[in-house]
């Protein structure tokens, strides 16, 4: 009924989200709009177990990178997995880190806010004695392992790929924020 142009115009005002193409992702984002949707949907499973996932992340991080334990004054004395898993201090820090990742992941829909937030968090690490930018990248594998453990069979090859892209992007921007702040400190123009 009606001409083709009327049908096209009417389709613009439909309330059916499946009838419309997905919004385009910001070109600065490493994820497509569909991948962002999948990431956020999957992330809900992580968020429901955010403390547990964070503890798994840190236990794996320290198993693979023992030298990092000395950077954490509140729990550097935790030399065994059992001590780490039962530590309130480690649980609090792990949860704080996971909430930071949560903010980064949820921020992928607004890239300006994402860059500002994640790079600011990276810059604050210049205040940690002995911390170097490469330490951020050491989180990638433990994060992916923790996500896989938490999600179980929901951690499909597609979700794994999306998580890899996402965590690398977040870590690269933490590094960028750290390096820019370090350079500002060295030049005497620090804003942190």
UniProtKB/TrEMBL annotation:
The keyword Nucleotide-binding is assigned to this record: no
Keyword Iron: yes
GO MF annotation terms: heme binding; metal ion binding; oxygen binding; oxygen carrier activity
Domain Globin per the UniProt entry, residue ranges: 30-179
Keywords in alphabetical order: Heme, Iron, Metal-binding, Oxygen transport, Transport
Pfam family membership, one: Globin
InterPro entries: Globin (IPR000971), Globin-like_OT (IPR050532), Globin-like_sf (IPR009050), Globin/Proto (IPR012292)
Family: Belongs to the globin family.
Annotated PANTHER family: BLR2807 PROTEIN (PTHR46458), GLOBIN FAMILY PROFILE DOMAIN-CONTAINING PROTEIN (PTHR46458:SF5)
Protein name, per record: Neuroglobin
Annotated source species: Papilio machaon
């Amino acid at each position: 009924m009606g001409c083709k142009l009327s049908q096209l115009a009417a389709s613009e005002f439909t309330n059916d989200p499946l009838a419309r193409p997905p919004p385009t992702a910001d070109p600065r984002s490493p994820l497509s709009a569909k991948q962002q949707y999948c990431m956020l949907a999957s992330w809900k499973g992580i968020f429901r177990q955010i403390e547990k996932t964070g503890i798994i992340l840190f236990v794996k991080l320290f198993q693979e990178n023992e030298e990092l334990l000395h950077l954490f004054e509140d729990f550097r004395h935790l030399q065994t997995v059992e001590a780490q898993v039962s530590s309130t201090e480690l649980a609090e820090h792990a949860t704080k880190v996971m909430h930071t990742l949560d903010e980064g992941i949820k921020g992928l829909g607004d890239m300006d806010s994402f860059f500002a937030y994640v790079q600011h968090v990276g810059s604050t690490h210049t205040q940690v004695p002995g911390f170097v930018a490469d330490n951020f990248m050491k989180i990638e594998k433990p994060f992916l392992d923790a996500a896989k453990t938490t999600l179980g069979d929901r951690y499909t090859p597609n979700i794994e790929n999306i998580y890899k892209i996402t965590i690398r992007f977040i870590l690269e921007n933490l590094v960028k924020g750290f390096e820019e702040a370090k350079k500002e400190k060295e030049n005497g123009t620090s804003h942190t």
